[in-house]
Design goal:
single chain, 9-stranded mixed beta sheet, 2 domains, Purple Acid Phosphatase, chain A, domain 2, globular, alpha/beta
Length: 582
């Protein structure tokens, strides 16, 4: 079988896909479309759950019975990858390399198995989006494998669910080649039997909900093959242990605990490591007095998330859990994070570049301020002008447009502060109200400035009318819109210190650096070693390599990428060294 011709440049015609810029998350179009798709997907998922429909598809478990010549088995884990081309391709090219030689780590061979842990595309799923942001990018990094092709499995995240999982199943569940990787799954969830008595289970909880009947039956049937002393790597779409272990959204962890009690523990096996993406950083929580690990590694390509507000300690299962037969409680401590705390705080302060990083958001605040200013000016003119004989109700009517806009801003500000559901309390409400009042105050203050300019500074006559109109229709969206966007930035900076809108303070910047993935090794004695690979700076400039070999990347960076270990390798024994509970 002949190889496809290699591209001569980075045009869409040569690559077969269109490289995409990083998503600007606070751009009006993205805000509106993503919000609508999220609501529709939630409703669709409630009434037509694709997971239950998958019960008619073949139920398979993939097996890797053989290790490498030295008795070891390597696998890779990456999550949150299908955003901007530069970051996604930088990580993909590292994953595609047959071997990585990292400082203080030695050579790390490419995994025979690649697990994509969720959100393989942004901002929403479609066949074209997967091709442009994920599949085409990974094909360019590994056009074809030399020798045995590595196997690829993917777990859907919330962005993969935005079209009801239709595109995800077409891309990942039909056993089609994904560049040099071969897909093997038939459903959105899967189990993989690994050498040396390890299992990898990936559960699809669809918007952090529950495990559906066919999925639970699939894992129960597979668990019949597990034996006492087997180790399990559990992949979930979101790191629910972080919020639940610190006292928020406790019910979401119940699903994981239920899976552990119903599927894994009855067979004498144990979940030794939990992996997830969704939060776009690296955070490892280690069991206090034990050796289990809970790792978030959503650093495959999406915008960087903050780490400076991560809780230091977790209690799992959470004490407030409503499960009557919950697992024995264990404590976990934050052992490592990437980027480091001070780096994350410095990045958060960069939100004041918001109007420059997101010109569309600047345009949105400009439009809102113009509408509010016109409404306030109308009320002021009616109140201060020559029509005072209109009576009380007439005066109220003159302020109706301003009141309508003000109510919309108040509702919008409150909803914005409560995007994350566990901030539904009074603190978030007051933060949203004060945020909205600040925007209203800016409009009112600017309106009085316009009145003052019109009555005091500008010359009388036709000139002052046109000059005032220009000030309102041009100066408001450009100048006041800019100040309003900076007001949002100030709000995000302050509110994020209280854990409110912490995601938005980073999403508004679309930071592409500090990416990476996990490279895991199962040794002949059954120990699992996690190598967290970090890339502080992603590639920005690429050139085509038309003369390269068939298995080599289509594109090479103008400057070499410099991956490194985020922290020293973490070893997890297959069997716990701690005394059995109870």
């Amino acid at each position: 079988m002949s190889s496809a011709p290699r591209p001569r440049d980075m045009s869409e015609e040569q690559l077969g896909f269109q490289p995409q810029e990083a998503v600007r998350w606070l751009a009006p179009k993205v805000l509106v479309t993503t919000g609508i798709q999220s609501v529709i997907a939630s409703i669709f998922g409630s009434y037509a759950d694709k997971r239950e429909l998958q019960g008619s598809l073949p139920a398979e478990v993939h097996r890797f019975p053989d290790a490498d010549d030295d008795g070891a088995f390597w696998l890779d884990y990456v999550a949150d990858l299908g955003d901007g081309f530069d970051a996604t391709y930088s990580v993909a090219s590292l994953l595609a390399a047959e071997e990585l030689d990292l400082p203080d780590a030695g050579p790390l061979p490419r995994g025979r198995l690649l697990v994509m842990g969720g959100d393989q595309v942004y901002p929403s799923a479609s066949t074209r989006a997967y091709e442009d942001r994920t599949k085409g990018v990974y094909r360019a990094a590994l056009p074809e494998a030399r020798g045995e092709s590595p196997t690829l499995f993917a777990l859907p995240g919330n962005h993969d669910w935005y079209d009801g999982l239709t595109s995800f199943l077409r891309v990942f569940a039909q056993k089609r080649a994904f560049g040099g990787w071969e897909t093997a799954q038939t459903r959105s969830y899967f189990a993989v039997q690994l050498p040396h008595r390890w299992w990898l289970c990936a559960i699809d909880t669809q918007f952090d909900d529950y495990i559906d009947g066919p999925q639970l039956e699939y894992f129960r049937s597979i668990s019949q093959e597990m034996r006492p002393g087997d180790g399990v790597i559990l992949c979930t779409p979101t790191p629910v242990w972080v919020a639940a272990g610190s006292g928020h959204e406790v019910e979401k962890y119940d699903t994981i605990d239920f899976f552990d009690r119903e599927v894994v523990r009855p067979r004498g096996a144990e979940v030794r490591v939990m992996l997830s993406g969704d939060k776009h950083h690296y955070a490892r929580y280690a069991e206090t007095g034990g050796d289990r690990q809970r790792i978030t590694a959503g650093i495959g390509g999406a915008y960087l998330s903050a780490t400076h507000e991560l809780p230091r300690d977790l209690v799992l299962p959470p004490p407030k859990s409503r499960m009557r037969d919950k697992s024995p409680t264990a404590e976990y401590a934050l052992a490592a994070r990437y980027p480091k705390r001070l780096t994350s705080e410095a990045f958060a302060a960069g939100i004041f570049r918001l109007p420059l990083r997101n010109p569309g958001f600047w345009g949105l605040t400009g439009v809102l301020q113009t509408v509010m200013t016109l409404a306030v000016l109308y009320g002021l003119v009616e109140t201060l002008g020559e029509q005072r004989d209109k009576g009380f109700f007439g005066m109220v009517a003159s302020w109706t447009p301003a009141l309508i806009v003000a109510v919309v801003l108040l509702l919008g500000g409150t909803a914005f502060a409560k995007i994350e559901r566990f901030h539904g309390g009074g603190t978030a409400t007051w933060a949203g109200v004060l945020h909205a009042l600040a925007h209203i105050g800016l409009s009112v203050g600017w309106s009085f400035v316009v009145i003052w300019l019109y009555t005091t500074v500008l010359p009388r006559g036709v000139v002052d009318d046109w000059a005032t109109l220009a000030i309102v229709l041009v100066g408001t969206p450009v100048v006041i819109g800019f100040l309003d966007a900076e007001l949002v930035a100030l709000y995000l900076m302050v509110a994020s210190r209280f854990g409110i809108n912490l995601n938005e303070v980073m999403a508004g910047q679309s930071i592409e650096h500090y990416k990476g993935f996990l490279r895991l090794r199962i040794s002949a004695d059954g120990d699992l070693t996690v190598h967290p690979v970090g890339l502080d700076r992603v590639g920005r400039r690429w050139r085509a390599d038309p003369g390269g070999a068939a298995h080599e990347p289509w594109l090479t960076p103008s400057r070499p990428l410099r991956p490194r270990l985020i922290e020293a390798p973490v070893t997890v024994p297959r069997v716990s060294a701690r005394p059995a509970a109870g």
